[in-house]
Predict the structure.
Amino acid sequence: MKCFYLSIFARCLALIFASVLIVDLSAAESKSVDDFNAAAAKANTILTIPDWQRTPETVDSSIKDAIAKANAKLDQIGKQDLGKVTFKSTVVALDDLSYEAGLTANKVNIIKEASTDAAMRTAAENGIKVFQDWAVGIDYREDVYKAIKAFADTHPKLSGEDEKLLNETMRDYRRAGLALPPEKRKEVEQLRKDLAKLGTDFDSNIVNAKAPVVFTKAELDGLPDDFFAKPGIKTGDDAYTVMANVTWQFITVEENAKSEATRKKLYVIHDSLAKDTNVPVLNQMLVLRNKIALRLGYKSWADYQTETRMAKSAANAGKYINDLTTGIQPKFAAEVSELQKMKAAETKDPAAKIDTWDWRYYQNQLNKQKFTVDKEALRVYFPFQKVLDGMFAIYQNIFGLKFEKITAPYKWIDDLQLYMVSDAASAEPLGMFYLDMFPRDGKFNHFAEFDIIGGKLLPDGKYQRPTVALLCNFPPPTADKPSLLSHQDVETLFHEFGHALHSIVTRAKFGRFAGTNVPRDFVEAPSQMLQNWVWEKKVLDTFAADYRDSSKKIPADVIKKMNDAKLATAGVFYRRQFAFATLDLTLHDPHPENTPYDCVAISNPILEKIFLPIDPSTTFVSYFGHLNGYDAGYYGYAWADAIAADMATVFEKAKEGYLDKQAGLRLRREVYEPGDSRDVTISIEKFLGRKQSVQPFLTRIGIGEAKKKPVPAPPAPEAR
Ligand SMILES: [Zn+2]
């Protein structure tokens, strides 16, 4: 119930552009959705192009109508005779109404992110707020809970997806406190409200933390010339103001300032942001989380948070991160040692050590000296349309699909594209996707896939096929050049489109299990795996070519250098990630009730132990936004990375590598189609054909051969 199919949890990678431009990508749009209706009917499915609201008033009324309709259905569940409850009249009815209300919310959410009309966006934003407030309250409809519990109490003989639906619905209620006696339930509700308020304070203290630091030009020696010319930097005769809280400014100084004193000064200020405000707030949040977990019968908040994820327990998440931390130690040590040698040479102090304020600088020097890849020059190989067509060709081939451009009856922008996805073998239409690819004022400014209509078996027995949208911000074409993507853009496109396919090909019966509605520590893994595709020459050569002369492909040595550069910093990158994951889990470990927390005393030693020496006055956690929202969840990034590497081995060992159709079809059948209708661990292992292993991940990041583990041979380095 909690996430309600609302694509607020849209999957995204962060990159920002902002500009306005309308581009003509018009190609032949011969077909319409009607041309697929006969095939859909044959498969007993429904295809739906959303009926988009066009005025703020209808946006507003659509949300109100959706809520009223859902409330009426909740009433129906609540007032039924408890002696006659059935699976259909309780849990399925709840999934049905949640799904249906979610359809409206999803559509309004797209309007909020993509409408070209500010009044529409505002109306949609308000609508989403109203919807979310209402959705939270569903958990606390006692009449509905009683009906569902009455059904659960009949101990029905269910299996598979049905059994999972009942169990997880009851689990949600238990997690919300509904299974507690009234007094305790009220207390949990109150604690949650207090926690939500503190969370809001924590976030706004981060947003409001501003720290200007004035340097002289000499102190900033080493920074690129254009840095000094940026607006707001030069603030006096020999005064340059760096905002420690503005990420690009902080990073530019840390990566380039030759003076260690400068790097350290800015780092200390940065890692102490929101110290006075957020240290007490976080300590209090930890107290409340711990209390909630204990009231609900969990040993810790980390156990509570991980219960619904793949990890299932704090111990599993912790062990995983621990194993990876240990596994990566030799690579991390080797990288730090190389940085140390550079620092020793530069400072003429053989005992110089790499501190937290040094690694970015020496890593940058290393990259410049060893791997001279000009990222900007690579763009000529990635004209947008060629990349899109190339990606389509690859995904159609490996997943056994066919994409056809169709007419969109309503377009919020001229260059909006709509495609039908069908099964290549049977011609069964599977769903549709919109592409809204370029930036404009007021549009969502990252890259993400949004569900609009999720897959679901409808009450009338027909299957609703999904419709999704990709909202991206690729560089628009200019007067003399087409849209030319960076390599990172290409990687993002392959990633986001993976989410779209995960949603579209679904076969799950219930809305809450369909498509990308899988545990949060898994959802990114298949898309992270697909990012590998764009680091391989064989794949790149199928579409990447100089737009001025398509006979020119990316030279092999350039691709090798790009891979080498990525690998050369993986130890430092991941150990830092593991330090964050570990401190996040440790903060949410079992803790005696009514004992105060000292979040800094818990977290600072972990940063030093797993990553690099810090300055003891800093309070990294006071500015670590993930601690509200991704609390006890940061481990999920590395968790998904390791699964992604593990899954990639199936392709790497296959005959055609990343272009292998058998492997692609297996991913579609075993991972994408079931979604969360069965435990994702089962899906992963069915796809792998073996138990999971972290060894491929360690191999990928340069830890060498498999260590006497009964895992298949590691991929050859060049197949990475
Ligand atoms: Zn993603």
Observations:
- The two ends are 39 Å apart (CA to CA).
- The first helix runs from residue 37 to 42.
- Residues 1-27, 706-720 have pLDDT under 50 and may be disordered.
- The CA atoms of residues 31 and 58 lie 29 Å apart.
